[in-house]
Amino acid sequence: MAGFVLDTGILLRHLRNRPGFKVLLDHIAHEDDLIIASFTRLEVLQGMRDHERDRTLALLNSLITHPLDVPTADLVAALIRDQLARRKTIAGPDAVIAATALTSDATLVTMNPRHFPFASLKVRQVNEKGEVV
Predict the structure, then answer these.
(1) What does the domain layout of the chain look like in residue ranges?
(2) Fold topology of 4-125
(3) In the predicted model, is pLDDT for residue 1 greater than 90?
(4) Residue 128 has what DSSP assignment?
(5) 3-state class (DSSP) for residue 94
(6) What does each C-alpha distance from 62 to 35, 56, 132 come to in angstroms?
Protein backbone atom coordinates (compact mmCIF):
# COMPACT_ATOMS: atom_id res chain seq x y z
CA MET A 1 0.00 0.00 0.00
CA ALA A 2 1.22 3.50 -0.68
CA GLY A 3 -0.70 6.68 -0.01
CA PHE A 4 -0.59 9.47 2.54
CA VAL A 5 -0.59 8.96 6.30
CA LEU A 6 -2.17 11.99 7.96
CA ASP A 7 -0.75 13.28 11.23
CA THR A 8 -3.30 14.03 13.94
CA GLY A 9 -2.80 17.80 13.65
CA ILE A 10 -3.85 17.77 10.00
CA LEU A 11 -7.17 16.12 10.85
CA LEU A 12 -7.83 18.39 13.82
CA ARG A 13 -7.29 21.51 11.73
CA HIS A 14 -9.60 20.16 9.04
CA LEU A 15 -12.28 19.38 11.63
CA ARG A 16 -11.91 22.86 13.14
CA ASN A 17 -12.45 24.39 9.66
CA ARG A 18 -9.02 25.98 9.52
CA PRO A 19 -8.58 27.64 6.11
CA GLY A 20 -6.74 25.53 3.57
CA PHE A 21 -7.07 22.12 5.20
CA LYS A 22 -10.19 20.97 3.32
CA VAL A 23 -8.48 21.92 0.06
CA LEU A 24 -5.34 20.09 1.18
CA LEU A 25 -7.19 16.85 1.94
CA ASP A 26 -9.23 17.08 -1.28
CA HIS A 27 -6.03 17.64 -3.28
CA ILE A 28 -3.98 14.80 -1.84
CA ALA A 29 -6.99 12.43 -1.91
CA HIS A 30 -6.91 12.80 -5.70
CA GLU A 31 -3.25 11.69 -5.68
CA ASP A 32 -3.55 8.57 -3.53
CA ASP A 33 -5.24 6.90 -0.56
CA LEU A 34 -5.58 8.76 2.75
CA ILE A 35 -4.51 6.68 5.73
CA ILE A 36 -4.48 7.22 9.47
CA ALA A 37 -2.82 5.25 12.22
CA SER A 38 -5.23 3.56 14.60
CA PHE A 39 -3.71 5.73 17.33
CA THR A 40 -4.57 8.86 15.33
CA ARG A 41 -8.20 7.74 15.30
CA LEU A 42 -8.03 7.34 19.08
CA GLU A 43 -6.49 10.80 19.54
CA VAL A 44 -9.13 12.49 17.39
CA LEU A 45 -12.03 10.68 19.05
CA GLN A 46 -10.84 11.39 22.58
CA GLY A 47 -10.72 15.12 21.82
CA MET A 48 -14.02 15.20 19.96
CA ARG A 49 -16.74 17.47 21.24
CA ASP A 50 -20.28 16.09 21.46
CA HIS A 51 -21.62 18.37 18.72
CA GLU A 52 -18.78 17.25 16.40
CA ARG A 53 -19.58 13.54 16.60
CA ASP A 54 -21.31 13.02 13.23
CA ARG A 55 -18.83 15.10 11.25
CA THR A 56 -15.83 13.57 13.00
CA LEU A 57 -16.99 10.00 12.47
CA ALA A 58 -17.83 10.74 8.84
CA LEU A 59 -14.29 11.98 8.25
CA LEU A 60 -12.59 9.15 10.14
CA ASN A 61 -14.73 6.50 8.44
CA SER A 62 -13.80 7.92 5.03
CA LEU A 63 -10.11 7.21 5.70
CA ILE A 64 -8.19 3.94 5.74
CA THR A 65 -7.32 3.13 9.35
CA HIS A 66 -4.08 1.16 9.58
CA PRO A 67 -4.21 -1.31 12.49
CA LEU A 68 -1.53 -1.54 15.12
CA ASP A 69 -0.58 -5.03 13.99
CA VAL A 70 2.51 -7.03 14.98
CA PRO A 71 4.86 -5.68 12.27
CA THR A 72 3.83 -2.11 13.02
CA ALA A 73 4.16 -2.59 16.79
CA ASP A 74 7.62 -4.13 16.34
CA LEU A 75 8.68 -1.19 14.20
CA VAL A 76 7.31 1.30 16.75
CA ALA A 77 9.49 -0.31 19.41
CA ALA A 78 12.53 -0.25 17.10
CA LEU A 79 12.01 3.44 16.29
CA ILE A 80 11.75 4.34 19.97
CA ARG A 81 14.84 2.25 20.82
CA ASP A 82 16.77 3.93 18.00
CA GLN A 83 15.93 7.38 19.34
CA LEU A 84 16.82 6.39 22.90
CA ALA A 85 20.20 5.10 21.68
CA ARG A 86 20.79 8.58 20.24
CA ARG A 87 19.77 10.10 23.58
CA LYS A 88 16.63 11.50 22.00
CA THR A 89 13.01 10.77 22.68
CA ILE A 90 10.00 10.38 20.47
CA ALA A 91 6.43 10.45 21.71
CA GLY A 92 4.69 7.09 21.48
CA PRO A 93 1.88 8.39 19.24
CA ASP A 94 4.44 9.91 16.85
CA ALA A 95 6.31 6.60 16.71
CA VAL A 96 3.04 4.81 15.86
CA ILE A 97 2.29 7.34 13.10
CA ALA A 98 5.82 7.04 11.68
CA ALA A 99 5.70 3.24 11.77
CA THR A 100 2.31 3.31 10.04
CA ALA A 101 3.77 5.37 7.19
CA LEU A 102 6.86 3.18 6.93
CA THR A 103 4.98 -0.14 6.95
CA SER A 104 2.50 1.24 4.40
CA ASP A 105 5.26 2.67 2.19
CA ALA A 106 3.29 5.91 2.44
CA THR A 107 4.20 9.58 2.72
CA LEU A 108 3.55 11.24 6.07
CA VAL A 109 1.66 14.55 5.87
CA THR A 110 2.49 16.67 8.92
CA MET A 111 3.04 20.18 10.16
CA ASN A 112 5.76 18.93 12.52
CA PRO A 113 8.49 17.08 10.59
CA ARG A 114 10.87 17.49 13.54
CA HIS A 115 8.69 15.03 15.45
CA PHE A 116 9.59 12.37 12.88
CA PRO A 117 13.42 12.23 12.59
CA PHE A 118 13.70 9.10 10.46
CA ALA A 119 15.76 9.20 7.26
CA SER A 120 13.72 6.50 5.52
CA LEU A 121 10.41 8.27 6.19
CA LYS A 122 8.89 10.20 3.29
CA VAL A 123 7.43 13.46 4.61
CA ARG A 124 5.25 16.15 3.06
CA GLN A 125 5.34 19.23 5.28
CA VAL A 126 2.32 21.51 5.54
CA ASN A 127 2.17 25.02 7.03
CA GLU A 128 -0.55 26.61 9.19
CA LYS A 129 -2.46 27.61 6.04
CA GLY A 130 -2.70 24.00 4.85
CA GLU A 131 -0.15 24.63 2.10
CA VAL A 132 2.57 22.14 1.22
CA VAL A 133 5.99 23.70 1.83
Answers:
(1) 4-125
(2) Rossmann fold (3.40.50)
(3) no
(4) T
(5) helix
(6) 9, 10, 22
